[in-house]
Amino acid sequence: MVKPLRETRWIWDYRVEFCTFHATDVIARICRPAAPYRIPGSSGMSLMMITLEAQLLVDCHATLGEGIQWNPARRRVYWTDVKGRTLWSCQEDGSGVARLDLETGLCSFAFSDDGRILGAFEDGLAWLDPVSGRRTLFEPYQPDKPTTRMNDGALDRQGRFVVGGIDEAELAPITPVWTVTRGEVRTIIDGVGCANSTAFSPDGSRMYFADSPTGEIQVFDYDIGRGIPSNRRVFARLRPSEGVPDGSTVDSQGGVWNAQYGGGAVQRFLPDGSRDIRIVVPAPNVTDCAIGGIKFQRMFITTARQELDDRTLEENPLSGAVFHVDLPVSGLPAGTYRR
């Protein structure tokens, strides 16, 4: 047995113990939060893999938690249970939990500057009053295809809502990705089985996207003036043990955080596609993530209970809960929909 070389370093505000077995085999463990300290002359980045552990925020038993995002004006985090037909929210510390029952499943959403929610519901795009729950459908989604519904969506940096769909029967590549601007709906990607991981670089020039069954996160060049993606290519491939790519968010340094459905984790990828920080979540089906809080350094994570058998649920009783973890990097506001 090779005797490991143990070393302790300070990275960001954390004391990290590294255990090196070979030149390429490094295990890092966060020991405890530390007093503010920076490595002299360091940029704050590390090539070492760092693992953080997510903590429970709200045990809401969501069948399919999704769409999580921080609303800075209201200082609350919002998320949806698609199959439970509910919109949830709470304060940064998990207090003040509120639940709004809906007439149909809300898959993803964006806040508008007038306080309303632009919602991607199972049956199409609609305006939602987040107080009363009143809904006004204005653009049905593939009404001629009963096995499809809307799915993951996000605002680009110019305030357009970019949203795709899923074929729930066979994940067949039959759904489009729409962009919504000032009430106008256009298709920008077609032939998708399960749209996920929609996110944009800090300057808006890159669009990240996943058709989950492929196991790949893709990246496009993004025309910020016209809202059109081009030059599609592979950004990162998930390993079989990591599940499939679900929702993503991008931090202020351009790092892409991806929720791994079936992988029990959120993985940060650097802009070159290499792996950086990994967040372990005590639930296998991790669905979405967002960075917020007053300091914009707290990650919020949704999970799902669906597709888990009784034994797995017994071993992972917090499946369907929302989790949080404080990060050594800051996030970016989700923005508001441009009407």
Write a concise keyword list for the protein shown above:
disordered N terminus; 339 residues; five-stranded mixed sheet; four-stranded antiparallel sheet; 28 strands; 1 helix; mainly beta; Neuraminidase
Q: Largest beta sheet: what is the strand line-up?
A: 4-25-24-23-22
Judging from the principal axes of the Cα atoms, what is the shape? globular
Major β-sheet annotation:
5 strands, mixed
CATH topology of the largest domain: Neuraminidase
Quickly count the domains: 2
Structural commentary:
The chain has one helix spanning 310-315; strands at 5-11, 14-22, 25-33, 50-53, 55-58, 65-71, 76-81, 86-90, 98-101, 106-111, 117-121, 124-128, 135-140, 148-155, 161-167, 175-181, 184-192, 195-200, 206-211, 216-223, 228-237, 244-250, 256-261, 265-269, 275-280, 286-292, 298-303, 322-326. It has 339 residues and is mostly beta strands. The chain has two domains: 1-48, no CATH class; 54-326, Neuraminidase (6 Propeller), CATH 2.120.10. The strands form seven sheets. Strands 4-25-24-23-22 form a five-stranded mixed β-sheet, with no helix packed on it. Strands 5-28-27-26 form a four-stranded antiparallel β-sheet, with no helix packed on it. Strand 7 (76-81) and strand 8 (86-90) form a beta hairpin. The longest helix is centred in the C-terminal third of the chain and has 6 residues, at 310-315. The protein is globular.
In summary, what is this structure?
By secondary structure, the chain is mainly β. It has one helix at 310-315, and strands at 5-11, 14-22, 25-33, 50-53, 55-58, 65-71, 76-81, 86-90, 98-101, 106-111, 117-121, 124-128, 135-140, 148-155, 161-167, 175-181, 184-192, 195-200, 206-211, 216-223, 228-237, 244-250, 256-261, 265-269, 275-280, 286-292, 298-303, 322-326. The longest helix is centred in the C-terminal third of the chain and has 6 residues, at 310-315.
